[in-house]
Every structure is written in structure tokens, then in C-alpha cells.
Specification:
Elements (H helix, E strand, L loop, with lengths): L1 H24 L8 H24 L5 H9 L8 H23 L25 H22 L9 H20 L5 H10 L11 H20 L7
Helix pairs in contact: 1-2, 1-4, 1-7, 2-6, 3-4, 3-5, 3-8, 4-7, 5-6, 5-8, 7-8
Length: about 230
């Protein structure tokens, strides 16, 4: 139960910190943090939670990460479904808090609410194929970073920083394409509150693509560096 509570809190923080920065702090014409600030915010949520709850739950905060670690032989499959449920619920709680904050402004409009999308709902107008490729490849690389940084032979104490910086880089690359998911829990939480026609209909891609990327990474890394134990 402690692990699930940790995953709930961690995913809540990821959504509140990352999506909150996009919704609250990126919209100001001259003082806003922009794409780079939002990317850094997502990375910082992972870094801070890695050191806060990593010793409790492993700090997955992401169904795709849990699946990729499971495929890579680094996570017990019996814990997979409870982790995913905790992550999705934590994400929804984070989005609910963000909604409550945003709705406190007179004349507020939820709009896209930092949701993910493609086509007309892509920040840069990229199509479904571009979105699929982006989310698969970015999630693949994210899991490669995680699997490598948390390997028993990797430098100790640096995993959280490497993973957080990896997520920052991923956002710098892919925000213009899909608004960056690589995390089905993050995508689900925002889609439930967004007031756009494409949020829920397009949500499938932000489950399917990250899971495909995570599975591929788990398989590849297991072949490249199989000599590690389940945490």
C-alpha cells in the first residue's frame, strides 16, 4: 500500500507541476516560461520525486514506465496493475487540483488544459503519423534512459537527475508535435478536464504509442544488458 500511495502522490505532483506550469505560467506574452520552462518543469517533477519516493516505490509515475520495467525484467508483474491504477488516479487528482486553481480566475476558460493531441490539436499541426512516431520513439528513449540509469552497475545516486534531464530533453523535442505525453496517466488526467473536441477521442494514441515504445525498450535493453535483478 505504501508503494501505491507514493505513486499516487508522485503522479499527482508530475501533473500539477508539469501541466500546471503549462496552464498557469506559460501563457504570459513576455514573462511566461514558454516551451523550455514547461519542459524543465516536467523534468523537475521527476527529479524531486525520484529523491522523495524513489526508495519507496521506484518513482515510476507513468504506466508506460511500469510496463517497460516489467518487460525489461526490473519490475514484478504482480504489482503492475495496482501501480497503473494508482498512477492514473494520482494524475486525475493533480488535474482536479489544477482545475480548481484555474477556475478561481474570473472569466476563466479551460480550453486545451495542456492536453495532448495531433492534427488540429497538435501545437504545431502535426498529423497522426508524426504523433505516433514521436510518442513511440520518445517513450522508447525515456525507458532506455531509465533502465540504464537504474542499472545495478550504473553510478549510484545519479539516476533521478539523469531521468529528469532525459524527460526535459524529450519535452524540448516533442512539445510542438503532441504537447508531449510519453505518459498515459498524464494524458488521461488532462483529457478528462479539457474542453476541446479532440481530447478524449485522441486519447487512445497516448496510451498505445507510449506502451509500444516502452515494451520495445524493455526488450532491447534486456538483450543489451540482461544481468540485473528485479528491484
Amino acid at each position: 500500500m505504501k508503494k501505491l500511495v507514493a505513486e499516487f502522490i508522485g503522479t499527482l505532483w508530475l501533473v500539477l507541476g508539469g501541466c500546471g506550469s503549462a496552464v498557469l505560467a506559460a501563457a504570459y506574452p513576455e514573462l511566461g516560461i514558454g516551451f523550455a520552462g514547461v519542459a524543465l518543469a516536467f523534468g523537475l517533477t521527476v527529479v524531486t520525486m525520484a529523491y522523495a519516493i524513489g526508495h519507496i516505490s521506484g518513482c515510476h509515475l507513468n504506466p508506460a514506465v511500469s510496463i517497460g520495467l516489467c518487460v525489461g525484467g526490473r519490475f514484478n508483474k504482480k504489482e503492475l496493475l495496482p501501480y497503473i491504477i494508482a498512477q492514473v488516479m494520482g494524475g486525475i487528482a493533480g488535474a482536479a487540483i489544477l482545475y480548481a486553481i484555474v477556475s478561481g480566475k474570473e472569466g476563466f476558460s479551460i480550453g486545451g488544459f495542456a492536453t495532448n493531441g495531433f492534427g488540429e490539436f497538435s501545437p504545431g499541426g502535426y498529423n497522426m503519423t508524426s504523433a505516433l512516431i514521436t510518442e513511440i520513439v520518445m517513450t522508447f528513449m525515456f525507458l532506455i534512459i531509465i533502465l540504464g540509469a537504474t542499472h545495478s552497475k550504473a553510478p549510484k545516486g545519479m539516476a533521478g537527475l539523469a531521468i529528469g534531464l532525459g524527460l526535459t530533453l524529450i519535452h524540448l523535442i516533442s512539445i510542438p508535435v503532441t504537447n508531449t505525453s510519453v505518459n498515459p496517466a498524464r494524458s488521461t488526467s488532462q483529457a478528462l478536464f479539457a474542453q476541446t473536441d479532440g481530447a478524449l477521442p485522441q486519447l487512445w494514441l497516448f496510451w498505445v504509442a507510449p506502451i509500444i515504445g516502452a515494451i520495445l525498450a524493455g526488450l532491447v535493453y534486456k538483450l543489451v544488458s540482461p544481468d540485473d535483478k528485479i528491484d
